[in-house]
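HUMAN: Spend a minute on the protein record below and explain its fold to me.
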Amino acid sequence: MAHQPRTILGIDSSTGACSVALRVGADVRAVRREDMTRGQSERLAPMTEEIMREAGLGFEALDAIAVSRGPGSFTGLRIGLAFAKGLGQALGIPVVGVTGFAAVARAARAACGDASNALAVVLESRRADLFLQIFKADGTPEGAPAALPADAIAERLARLAVSAPLLLAGDAADKVAALLGSACIRSPATVPDADDVSALGLALLEAGTESQAAPLYLRAPDVTHPASS
């Protein structure tokens, strides 16, 4: 029996944008992207309905949902994860989590076309530390992600760029590229996108790899506790 391609919805609202993508196997049927720092909760459901209608498919056609799980803004992450989990529960389909690092890394490799360089994804945290994850030339992560100052990231990456320039991606990559100079190649890939999230989610499902839709924050929330009386 021929393999039936899976239909998967990709969601990202982890940064200053909101995007959804509908993929049937390798075929991307519809995509919506909007830049926004607020309002993802109001736009996510209508945008999803728009791409389902554009593709001529009902929600019952979905086999799975893939969602960005961070790092990113606390509010944006919670909106995307809650929407994905609620829809997945209502439809009785699996929800898989994809890190923003992996999504940007996929876009960077696609834009570069050269898989021989190690890759570092540096994402904005809106704080002094930046979010970092390094990927080997074969695409596998080099250790765990971390939150570090730009100069500490540059020092660490310089040690990896001895024999060949490092491919550098992410919306905070410019802050590190200025410190690395010719030791890096700047990728145009900046923030996670639902198209890449859907592709990576599909790959996880087909490999049978478990990836829960749990938030990846990498730093504590900005909460001010009331003074004790």
